[in-house]
Amino acid sequence: MPEESSYFAPTTMDPYHLPATDKTPTVRFIPAEGLLEIAGCSIHENADRFFRPLLERVAAYAREPMPETLVRITLSYFNSSSAKYMLDLLKLLDDVHAGGLGKVAVEWYFAQGDLDMQEAGQDYRGLLDMPVRLVEQ
User: Fold this and answer.
1) Hey, which of 38, 55, 81, 135 would disulfide with 47, CB 3.0 to 4.6 Å?
2) Rounded to whole angstroms, how far apart are CA atoms 109 and 90?
């Protein structure tokens, strides 16, 4: 029997949605609109199981991206394993931007006064070539 990731091989234009749980954020990825949204709390027990399908879809999208892509991230908290996968995800799209395949921008939303999430957004901004706009809510 084929592995799940190859059996359910996504195409670049398939929308992908995961509802939020107590430990995982909601994910809304609409390739045809160039939109990726991640919102909520990200404290997975198995971050690989959560992020791997999304990473595969974004990697497929990165081969044939829309001219403009918006990544909207609104996290209340995330743990260190989530931070690693978030960086992997953002680097896939950063390669699109840096390689001239499309314009990619990140909007990093954080609650008013949440210095930890503001600093996390600043850290990602320092690691990426694409623009990262910090938005206090």
Assistant:
1) 81
2) 15
Widest pairwise Cα distance in the chain: 50
pLDDT tens for each residue of 38-93: 999 999 888 999 999 999 999 999 999 999 999 999 999 999 999 999 999 999 99
Q: C-alpha angle with apex 14: 10 to 20, nearest 5 degrees?
A: 95
| d(C-alpha 137, C-alpha 22), whole Å | 21
Query: Which CATH class for the 4-136 domain?
Result: alpha beta
Cβ count within 10 A of residue 14: 15
Whose CA is closest to 16, among 3, 33, 1?
33
Domain boundaries, the chain: 4-136
Phi, psi of 63 (to 5 degrees): -75, -25
CA distance 135 to 71: 13
Tokens standing for 61?
A: 């999208």
pLDDT digits (tens, 9 = 90+) for 9-40: 555 578 999 999 999 999 999 999 999 999 99
What is the pTM assigned to this prediction?
0.88
